[in-house]
């Protein structure tokens, strides 16, 4: 019986492990090795350069601009998306007399807010590129129609506005999904807690702060990790929306874009691999710190 169970487990796990090693771990290992070489991406011998590629990263001004922009995105995008998602989910679910029923038509609003998730990031970037068009774009057109033409700008052409414009698109494209995620988390909270808060005379804000937010903390933590990983990327939207690419004066340069340009434009695959490895460890560090912080908070609450 035990031998039959062991054969079953080996038969189920070994093929999956082999595929995982072949298609997941093997590319990682190759990337780590290539980051230590000067490989140009074409057939030929790759010369081992050790940590030389990593030493070059510290002196690459464009890469440092990309790190700075990704750091700004890492702060702004998760905070803005989570705040808006929680606000919308709360408004849709916590507006009734019992503190739980929500406003009329909340299901319709959820569908409307979720709609951007049906579009790929490339399609979203193209749509917003037209919206931001300085001559006949929807945004400037609306400002001029409202007699606020003085506020019309070249949203993707000015260094001070290019990155905020891109971040606004990333937040817009993500907030609907996290609103639905937070809505599901709120639905799982026992109704009795809201009834008790209502009997105690708690306001909507107090109910959200004392009941809802602590009980959706784990969901918020997961959302932060995923949004942080997305903020460390941003390649697709920047590549499609901004000119250059990388925007005016590198205002929207991101690590993924620098990696792509060095690999497929300049043929520096070894150097690009070093960027990829640096991005990998930055993402891994973010996830570990966020998960550890969440675990420490749970221990303190217990």
TrEMBL record:
<feature type="domain" description="ABC transmembrane type-1">
    <location>
        <begin position="67"/>
        <end position="290"/>
    </location>
</feature>
<comment type="similarity">
    <text>Belongs to the binding-protein-dependent transport system permease family.</text>
</comment>
<feature type="transmembrane region" description="Helical">
    <location>
        <begin position="111"/>
        <end position="131"/>
    </location>
</feature>
<dbReference type="Pfam" id="PF00528">
    <property type="entry name" value="BPD_transp_1"/>
</dbReference>
<feature type="transmembrane region" description="Helical">
    <location>
        <begin position="161"/>
        <end position="181"/>
    </location>
</feature>
<feature type="transmembrane region" description="Helical">
    <location>
        <begin position="219"/>
        <end position="241"/>
    </location>
</feature>
<keyword id="KW-0813">Transport</keyword>
<keyword id="KW-0812">Transmembrane</keyword>
<dbReference type="GO" id="GO:0055085">
    <property type="term" value="P:transmembrane transport"/>
</dbReference>
<dbReference type="InterPro" id="IPR051393">
    <property type="entry name" value="ABC_transporter_permease"/>
</dbReference>
<keyword id="KW-1133">Transmembrane helix</keyword>
<dbReference type="InterPro" id="IPR000515">
    <property type="entry name" value="MetI-like"/>
</dbReference>
<feature type="transmembrane region" description="Helical">
    <location>
        <begin position="71"/>
        <end position="90"/>
    </location>
</feature>
<dbReference type="GO" id="GO:0005886">
    <property type="term" value="C:plasma membrane"/>
</dbReference>
<feature type="transmembrane region" description="Helical">
    <location>
        <begin position="269"/>
        <end position="291"/>
    </location>
</feature>
<keyword id="KW-1003">Cell membrane</keyword>
<keyword id="KW-0472">Membrane</keyword>
<protein>
    <submittedName>
        <fullName>Sugar ABC transporter permease</fullName>
    </submittedName>
</protein>
<dbReference type="InterPro" id="IPR035906">
    <property type="entry name" value="MetI-like_sf"/>
</dbReference>
């Amino acid at each position: 019986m035990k031998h039959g169970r062991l054969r079953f487990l080996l038969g189920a796990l070994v093929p999956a492990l082999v595929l995982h090693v072949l298609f997941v771990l093997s590319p990682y290992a190759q990337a780590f090795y290539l980051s230590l070489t000067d490989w140009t991406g074409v057939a030929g011998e790759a010369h081992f350069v050790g940590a030389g590629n990593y030493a070059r990263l510290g002196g690459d001004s464009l890469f440092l601009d990309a790190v700075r922009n990704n750091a700004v995105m890492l702060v702004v995008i998760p905070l803005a998306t989570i705040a808006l998602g929680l606000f919308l989910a709360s408004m849709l679910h916590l507006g009734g007399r019992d503190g739980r029923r929500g406003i009329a038509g909340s299901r319709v609003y959820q569908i409307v807010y979720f709609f951007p998730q049906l579009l790929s990031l490339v399609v979203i970037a193209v749509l917003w590129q037209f919206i931001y068009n300085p001559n006949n774009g929807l945004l400037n057109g609306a400002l001029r129609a409202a007699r606020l033409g003085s506020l019309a700008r070249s949203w993707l052409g000015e260094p001070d506005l290019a990155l905020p414009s891109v971040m606004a698109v990333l937040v817009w494209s993500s907030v609907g999904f996290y609103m639905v995620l937070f809505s599901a988390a709120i639905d799982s909270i026992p109704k009795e807690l809201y009834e008790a808060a209502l009997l105690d005379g708690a306001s909507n804000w107090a109910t959200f702060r004392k009941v809802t937010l602590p009980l959706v903390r784990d969901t918020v933590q997961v959302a932060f990790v995923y949004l942080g990983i997305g903020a460390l990327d941003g390649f697709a939207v920047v590549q499609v929306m901004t000119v250059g690419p990388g925007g005016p004066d590198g205002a929207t340069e991101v690590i993924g874009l620098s990696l792509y340009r060095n690999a497929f434009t300049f043929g520096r695959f070894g150097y690009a691999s070093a960027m990829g490895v640096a991005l990998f460890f930055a993402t891994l560090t973010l996830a570990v710190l966020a998960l550890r912080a969440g675990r420490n908070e749970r221990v303190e609450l217990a």
